[in-house]
Amino acid sequence: MTQQEPVTSRVEDGIAVIRIANPPVNALSAAVRGGLKRAAEAAAADPAVRAIVLAAEGKTFIAGADISEFGKPPVPPSLPETIAIFESLSKPVVAAINGAALGGGLEVALGCHARVAAPSAKLGLPEVTLGILPGAGGTQRLPRLIGAAPALKIMAEGKPISAKEAQANGLVDEVAEDVVAAARALALKLAGGTLPAVPKDRTNLGAREAFEEAAAAILKRNPNNPSVEACADAVRACFDKPFEEGLAVERAHFTRLRDDPRSAALRHVFFAERAAARIPGLPKGTGARPVAKAAVIGAGTMGGGIAMCFANAGIPVTLIETTEENLQRGLERVEGNYATSVKRGSLAEDAKAKRMGLIEGKVGLEAAADADLVVEAVFEEMGLKKEIFGKLQEIAKPGAILATNTSYLDVDEIAASTSRPADVLGMHFFSPANVMKLLEVVRAKETAPDALATAMEIGRKLAKVPVVSGVCYGFIGNRMLARRTAQAERLLLEGALPQDVDKALTDFGFRMGPFAMSDLAGIDVSWRIRKAMNLKTAPVADALAEAGRFGQKTKRGFYDYSADGRTGAPDPEVAALIERISAERGITRRPIPQEEILQRLLFPMINEGARILGEGIAARAGDIDTVWLNGYGWPSWTGGPMFYADSVGLPKIVARLREFAAASGDTNLEPAALLLRLAHEGSSFTALDEKAAA
Ligand code: 3HC
Ligand code: NAI
Hints:
This protein is an alpha/beta fold. Helices cover 50% and strands 11% of the residues.
């Protein structure tokens, strides 16, 4: 089979229609850039061509530069060079934007003389999400077209705008259903006249003061973000320098940021999230089952949020409770959440009504009879869950997926309580379920391939990032978290204070450390669980809970919240309590350097991640990263725990873990077999994933 040319050109009625066809998203690979250059030169040289339309096949116009080429030797022509060729043509070029025009894709369109967009098209410069800035003239052309302040906003936020917004701000000239026809008509109109290129002067930039004000606000909202800083600096050059020099400023920032390890980490995040969508070992051609209606059992903290996810995605859902009273409480909480969004201006009143209209409250499990997917979110009790799944086997319609939102319970055991274990799997949402992006899809022993495919597809429809996990205690995320929690307590006993431990993690990039988080969630929650299980693993947290210090809700926990109820201050009473517990245990406290605290918290998690990978609970190291990035606030510019481990160096982690294990006598801290092997071979988690993908 001959491969389709990524760029073709056809001349008809004096117009050359140049088409990009580089599935899946028409990224600007070397072959596409080469094809565009040749097509532009041919059209320029052909006397029969009066005007040019630049169009694309498929759903997307152009998704930008080919991200997989970053970090590899450059292949000419470069993107800036390709765009410059189009911009300098003496025949009009009109971009026919049929779908997303992102990053380099929008920059190509900006190099055209005019732009027509489909009503559904999205236009944006998402480079900051990859740790870079627009590097093919976007920072110079967009401000000169729509104004410096609005252009900086688009770049700094990285979020695309709609065709309608783009028309309003002058980024596109026309919005039309048939973009190619409209672009042809516009191109012919422009032929022969003066070409309306993006001005190279300051005509459209707007007032400098307005730009500086907008830039200051944006930089304040994005502290220590080198990409956003570079965007502001490059846009500022529009005022201070001629166009060509502005391009040079942009290029310098672009190459510096592209070669920064933070950008490599963010690229890893991009690809890891997409790879996580691929389920290994699924028979070819496995399709998803249709899901037109869902049911959620239990309208508590999680159930209400999960029902909102379905309603937000336009899927009707029945929310099921044991009593009218519980049901009303649950529905009121959902309504209240939507009302808050309306108040904040993020949801329109009619959208709220529509979403509430999709949620039907019912008492009794029988109401799950017409659902294609049932998510159980009742109390975390094995007996109760088994009873419910046992009943569901009769109630749920044949082929319905039966999912549990359990955090820790054995999904195989739950599945065994039904006569249809092939339909059973875990759908582990994170709290608050309507906000958090992560969804762990737990594949049990008997889960049917198409049931798994359905849960993954539904996860994406709910705007989640779904990741497959095998069955184990705590699945991927909570199993690793338990290692960090244990070390955090241990560090307190050895000499650190809550603020030292939390600072190590917030300095690393987490929004919150484990103790501030504990205070927020309520120290009593895990205390009650430990008491029920007779666990003595957290003496400090237990002592605080016994003293009635439950966290923010009692104004005292690991920190003192008496100032305003929300801001925690270090508390000398807590320090004294910790010192007393250390003394009772015969531990001589010592100052622990921040670097050691960080390693003590992160390396045991990485070690557990290696075990999870070694056992096949996670299919890829990148899946583990995706879990931590989307469910636990791991800082994205370090790429996630396993990518970070590679950057630290696996031999160093092995050596430190051995020291920690020897010092504490905790065998859990002994390096995992997979970690040892990779370190010994001089390999990495990234290399392991690459080998598996190949
Ligand atoms: N380069 C390379 N591959 C890309 C890509 C890109 N720019 N964009 C998407 N892909 C790949 C994905 O990895 C995925 O591959 P897979 O099927 O092998 O996993 C495939 O295309 C489909 O992607 P999605 O699953 O994301 O498809 P969706 O339909 O959900 O979304 C999209 C489409 C909105 C275009 C989304 O892919 C997207 O946001 N892409 C990235 C956009 C971006 O960041 N562009 C800026 C690039 S940097 C740049 O242009 C620099 C310039 O200024 C010089
Ligand atoms: P919750 O206690 O807030 O809500 C449970 C609800 O289930 C209650 O409203 C209860 O009335 C209802 N319920 C009990 N038996 C029922 C039955 N037979 N039929 C219908 N409804 C019934 O509990 P929460 O926090 O929402 O947890 C639910 C599940 O989600 C648990 O398995 C938990 O482990 C899991 N989970 C909890 C998270 C959290 O942060 N709270 C995070 C992720 C998972």
